[in-house]
Amino acid sequence: MNLSEIQIDRGRLIENFRALKSLLLPGTHAIVVVKGNAYGHGFAEVVKVLAEEADGFQVDDIEELRLLRSLTAKRALVLGYITKRDIDEAVGLDCEISVFDLERLSSIAEAGKRHSMRPKIHLKIDALLGRLGFLPADIPNVIFDLKRFPELDLRAAYAHFANIEDTTDVVHANDQWEAFDSCCQQLQSSGWPELGTHISATSGVMTNWKGHSLARLGLGVYGMYPSGALARRHTELGLKPVIRWVSHLAQVKMLPAHHPVGYGLTFITPKPMRIGIVPQGYSDGVDRGLSSIGEVLVRGTRCSILGRIAMNMFAVDLSNVADAKAEDEVVLLGSQGEESIGAEEIASRLGTINYEITTRISPLLPRRIV
Known catalytic residues? Predict the structure, then answer.
């Protein structure tokens, strides 16, 4: 038994993927996003479960690409930053590389020659987002330079929506689409008539922006919705969280009244209190902001976090769990009995998003498929 571990529900992972894929138009490739340790769920574990289901995987950098290639030969999109010194290795690992500036074209082409390969590239369009990518005004120059490198295989152009989760206002999304579509039309009419396109992640698919060659399925695969509005709009999908963060009580004891709990003396027992010590902390991804406001589950009962969360442990109030004892299971994220603590609830307490809650879980914690 691991003292603390991340449990991943195989069945739910597959069901979530299939539910999202059902929204795609026929012929659209379903690419699973596994960057950020598969949003904290476990890179290798998720790839192994979905290798037979997905059309490919999206990663962020060379380290993730190396790991992906140790697990599968399926289509690999690297849409983050790769240093020039790592381009040669990336091309050799047969991936599809994001190109967001013209200086990279020659480096990628040279790497292709060394490996006797025709490197596959995707053009990143900065369509009113303000991150990596070519501005729409750059496209004529991009076309000119691309034609200097016919040895490059331009597979697709792509962009990211900025605020598609907010389904009450699609004005910016429409503006983004128009900017992106104009770039794609210029490219397609300039020598790449079969150019692929992609702009939709989970949120884009849920808001019907899905007429593209591929979709980048991330958050929804892990059973989380990009926003409350999209969760309400797509109850029929039945997405279910696949993660369960489990630990165990290291100690159970009674503290007298007026006794401090944890660093900083931020909590003093108002009366004799039975507490439990959970051997997880901010080094494991338990946000310190949950000090005295977060909860965990013990024997199916919500138990409040007392005092400050430390690097490797924190205390919880066991007043309502009279029979709790050392080594009892503690759930920090997920379900136990009839109770459940979701990433959305934790994110709301911290003023952040569900993506961050799972992605920040320490990669050192063991992941186990159940």
Answer: 35, 263
